[in-house]
Amino acid sequence: CVIRGCVPKKILVYGASFRGEFE
To answer: What Cα–Cα distance (Å) separates residue 22 from each residue in 1, 2, 6, 7, 15?
Structure first.
């Protein structure tokens, strides 16, 4: 998995998941 392609996507996905869980 390429860091520049995989990490950013994971961060966005995790960020959306955390936001949904917080709300």
So the answer is: 29, 29, 24, 22, 10
Question: How far apart (Å, rounded) are the C-alpha atoms in residues 1 and 20?
Answer: 26
What CA–CA distance (Å, rounded) separates 23 from 21?
5
| pLDDT of the residue at 15 | 75
Q: What is the pLDDT of residues 1-23, one digit of tens each?
A: 566 666 777 788 877 777 766 66
